[in-house]
Amino acid sequence: MPLVEDIVTLLTAASLGIIKVDLFYSSRAILPDGDGPYTTLIETAGLIDEWIQNDVTRPAFEHGGAQLVTRAAHYIDARNKALAIYAEINKVHNQYIGTTWYRRIHPLQRPFDAGPPDEHNRALIKFNVLGERSPYV
Question: What's the whole-model pTM score?
Fold first, then answer.
């Protein structure tokens, strides 16, 4: 499963959201008109795969990237939800999410205010993550 889908699995298990209710995939997701908070998970480029010496036929680890954007009518609500998601993702070390083995998923920065509000005047809080996963374990 792609990184963003595995993150949704993680967040759902931690009671931090439900897909198509307050968690959404892609920058093209159609979000509800309400106050939120709503979080969008957007796939990003990530980094080059990691190879090991004893296996030149396939990478040992893939390094997928994602951006998480949390929005809410009130800045504090968006920030607090983003921080809770950040903390949950930051716990992932040497574990399975579903059937995929993750060496780790690590945020690249703390959640930050992303500037102007969205079209519904909701505050935007963003952060980016990298997932180091072995699709062959």
Answer: 0.92
